[in-house]
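Figure caption, in words: inputs first, then the predicted bound structure.
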Amino acid sequence: MKNLLGGKGANLAEMCLLGLPVPAGFTITTECCTDYYENNCELPEGLMEQVWDGMRKAEQVMGTKYGDKDNCMLVSCRSGARSSMPGMMDTVLNIGLCSETIPGLIKKTDNPRFVYDSYRRLIMMYADVVMEKAEGIEPVDGVGIRKILDDVLDEYKESKSYKSDTELTSEDLQFLATEFKTIIKNKLGVEFPDDATKQLEGGIKAVFKSWNGKKAVAYRRIEGIPDDWGTAVNVQAMAFGNTGDGSATGVAFTRNPATGENLFYGEWLKNAQGEDVVAGIRTPNPLNDDTKNEQNKHLVSMQEDMPETYKELCEIRTILENNFRDMLDIEFTIQDGKLYMLQCRVGKRTGVAALTMAMDMFKEGRIDEKEVIRRVSPTQLDELLHPILDSKDEAKHTVVAKGLPAGPGGALGVIALTSEEAMRLQKAGIANVLVREETNPEDVEGMRAADGILTARGGMTSHAALVARGWGKCCIVGCEALQINMENKTVTIGEKTYKEGDILCLNGTKGLVYDEKVAMINATENPLFQEFMQIVDKYRTMGVRTNADTPEDTEQALKFGAEGIGLFRIEHMFYGKNSEAPLAILRKMILSGSTEERKKWLNELQVYIKQSVKGTMKVMNGKPVTFRLIDPPLHEFVPHTEDKVAQLAEELGIKVSELKDRIEGLKEVNPMMGLRGVRLGIIYPEISETQFRALFEAEAELRKEGNDPHLEIMVPLTVSVTELKHQKEICDRVHAEVESAMGAKINYLYGTMIEIPRATLVADEIATVADFFSFGTNDLTQMTFGFSRDDVNSIIGEYKEKKILPADPFQTLDQEGVGQLVKLGVERGRNTKPQLKVGVCGEHGGDPESVEFFFKAGMNYVSCSPFRLPLARLAAAQAAVGK
Ligand code: ADP
Ligand code: MG
Ligand code: MG
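Bound structure (adenosine-5'-diphosphate present):
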């Protein structure tokens, strides 16, 4: 029904069926709107006849007559699309007031003030919506007719020293109506139509036109709503909230949309029409005691002022919740003590509220477990896992810069321009934001120490972003407005310059930067969260693993429900805490002059690798851990500063110039497509050999110590089965050697990453050697698109804006392209080995939309960073129960 009648129309009809008091009316379908546009903006043939038929029926119900000089009915023309686009399209109220009908209505109601108040509202809205916007008139200097008339109204009130609209008398309003009409004639060159028939037709067309109004079009772009849906038009008899102090209008939520509490929550205004509350023209009063706060507690509530009507509204609240089994957002109007319902729709809510309401409604028996799972979106769940900026307070501050929302949540702290400073501040217990041009492995400690991270360059899969998300840390990357001057130690954003110690506040969920303190709230410690996740896991069928390389991260991941590690990057032991010793050896190994020398350093390195591997496998006891062989662009680990180069030359016992030559020899034009992954092990087999040995020894030792390790070895960047075979020979040999040396039986799986398009095409052959596949969707996306993920950021921004790409393919899997390769790889792999284990370890493993796709592609598991685990679990459960 929603598709045809729009959300508003369908729910108005539903409320009528529930026997609620809804003013009579009818809905013109969204199909008519589509026809209207296909038909060169002509109303479809026969539409107006049907409209007049509908009007006759509404008149019968209301006991009034449209355009009648003694007993006239007035109507509103209201927009309403399939999915809610709040405030984006237009509505006109009080249609049908003209010289014919005004005197009769005054006589009938004996309330000239009400009639002229309605009339001046009609003129204002009609001029704005029908005569200006729908005609496509671009206002001079951007000041539209609505603004001009509003200003006249304000000046008039000022001249009379009125504080509120309600003080305007009947004479004032009559005078203003005449003024308005003159201004309209002068500005727009046409008369305001003094004819009820014309007004109605104009109103209907204007609502159709508002589908293509600027706001509506922009909103559709953002929300991805198709242009050809069209809007319905609801023509509805008016209920008047502006007849005096016995009348009112209001908006309410059946439960608190911010906290989810089962308390009726709303605002109302006496002697007003609906638009006054929504547009914030007057400060509304609290609906009831539960809605009172510091700002409005002195204002009278509906509960106090109209207890009978309030009770009736409470009953309707129950009826609606019973029917829709969800929290609703409702609009109502009271005309001389009689209550009318004007709208209801499922209300928007925060993450906390979504969780609370879902669990409450489950306990109230309104919804079942599957529905509980559907009620909380992964984005809402994500909100719960991070401290966030208090949106109310945030609205009071000005955004100074924008970047990509890489790590969610909020952060507040003083600026630190170096990792050392961030660490110093953390030790001193001072919250800080690490601001960097970009981050590299040497910043890891600083990133750990920072409360938030802000970088001028980098994309969503940049190092900083990956790491930040892994820790659940607030992070904004690619903030191009930042100008960092390391010489003066300053950061410039536009006109303003900041130095270390100045405050910055980040909204990592939206990518917004503030230079003032914004209040924060913490939503994590919610016992409902645990209960909810239990239900989620009950229905989830696909496995969920984590990407982790340290015992600490692994422990965190276990708390968030990890069922194993899908990606342990061996090279991560060379970043961050305790990395100095192994990193020093790694450097020497990389810069060795001969194989003999390299083997010497590798032998030293093996001890560290074993140690690192054992630590994590021990924490993941009983659950699988996939170790990826070293996959670094080598240049990342080479010393960059003169003194470090000099020091290393001394340690290697060679001249500085000789070392510089070796470093030069490692330079690659495009390191991401150079000596990486399995290629490294083929050029230098001893590097793989060392890792195999460390892994097998770790497994054997752990088992001897009474643990239950599940070892999986994964070869990265494979393009051909011959590569895998080449490495497998080394692996088999080392396996046999370690087994006999340690007198132990060592079990392991030998698998590969699928991350280059060629690998998906020859997956059937690769599966003859591999026990499992893990799709590295970051590289697969990079290689399939030919996008360098570190450089293509701003281009992707433009592509999204120009609708060339629907989304950033590094964030959400490109299903029609990269996704097809994934499917192909799974299919071909399983043709060879039906039981082949298949997973995903790219960042997409934590993206809900992509998780659904992976579920459908038949993956055994997805693997993501620890803080994304609850999201991945929820997304997997939602995929399993269906939407
Ligand atoms: P939006 O979709 O922007 O909320 P609406 O069509 O709901 O626009 O109308 C704007 C305001 O006018 C709302 O507060 C609504 O309740 C009020 N309104 C609309 N139609 C009527 C009517 N027939 N009688 C009284 N108030 C109305
Ligand atoms: Mg509305
Ligand atoms: Mg990769």
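The pocket of adenosine-5'-diphosphate (ligand 1) is lined by residues 23, 76, 78, 87, 91, 93, 236, 238-239, 273-275, 278, 331, 333, 342-343 (CB under 6 Å).
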